[in-house]
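Example record

The entry below shows one chain as it appears in the dataset: sequence first, then structure tokens.
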Amino acid sequence: MSLSVLILAAGQGSRMKSQHPKVLHPIGNIPMIYHLITLAKNVKANRILAVVGSTSNRITDSIKAFTEVEIVKQSKQLGTAHAVLCAKKHFVENHEDLLILYGDSPLISKSSIKELRRLRENGADLAVLGFNSKNPKNYGRLILNADGELEKIVEANDATPEEKAISFCNSGIMIANANLFFSLLNKVSNKNTSKEFYLTDLVSIARKENMLVQATSCPESEAQGVNDRLDLAKAEGSFQSLKRLEVMRNGCTLIDPSTVFFSFDTEIGTDTVVEPNVIFGPGVRIRDNVRIRSFSYLEKCLVKRNAVVGPFARIRPETILEEGVKVGNFVEIKKSTLNKNVKANHLAYIGNASIGEQTNVGAGTIFCNYDGDSKNSIEVGENTFIGSNTSLVAPLKIGDRVIVGAGSTITDDVLQDSLALGRSRQVNKKKN
């Protein structure tokens, strides 16, 4: 059964106390709405649409990179049913299923959507995703009949005391045939305490027309929405917990999982060990049998097999650490390639560089790659030794099998098989 996805992202998000749209606040170092777009791709949606407010240019600009996402404008926020109705013209005589997602509920899983679609395939006209909560508070309640079918959804503000005692809550996510959605939406009214057009009213309307409406459940942590900064922190915590489980199940050892923080796109191979207090920024790919030591920060880099990073290392964007590389404590690397078995064991800055195999970079070495106006590159050959406390001033080429004496400042190219010294002569004077 083919599928379209509609992401509702027009909410004001006033409780975030922010100048930024709510759905652009990050979870796992990407905006919340990106999680939903990725989910839509993963469930193989033929079309992805996002409903945004008429003034939400930031959202529109942010998701331009996803060229497959169609933008729907909601000029006035009159409720969730009205938001979906704004997309009606995009679904004229459309016989696909339509899945409704929310831009501020970023943790919905592919497996939960698969279960919703299974209900549709088994005959449900409308299927709703719910969750059980020990503290239902302001969630809408899913009311089931004696046959276990979904009878209605009651918003918390309109619920009776008996209905408020129900723990089966509404995530807001539902699926039905697109034509059916818009047929039912025309019958939704705003006669409720909030004077809004609720999407949840579709359930009772469908039941009155003798349609089969069913519900399935997912974990509460998966369904949680983000309304304020506290919710944002909880959602981030849930994301991190899920990502930690994912990498450990895929063969990575986390010595103290709760102290390791991942991004949405972090990739880690098997038999890799991550020590406590490590942060993975966006775009990190770690291959097999790597060790990331404590208090290291990595971002937009590739670390290949058998490498060791840290402790207290900072690996910045466009860095490649080839097989067997060792990067030690207080080493910062940016936009550089360290080839096989290179060692930079402590207290160094390496930027805009290429370093050949088996080369050793001594403590206190600085790659001076910025002249105040532009970045320049440094090439270091194979089997070369850079002595401690050396400054290499770009642009510069150093050949294979070179020794650079400790304490040198090197400004001119060095040919292979050379000894390079660039320091003041030592003078010793006796006391009078």
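Notes for this example: The chain has nine helices and 35 strands. The chain has two domains: 3-223, 229-420.
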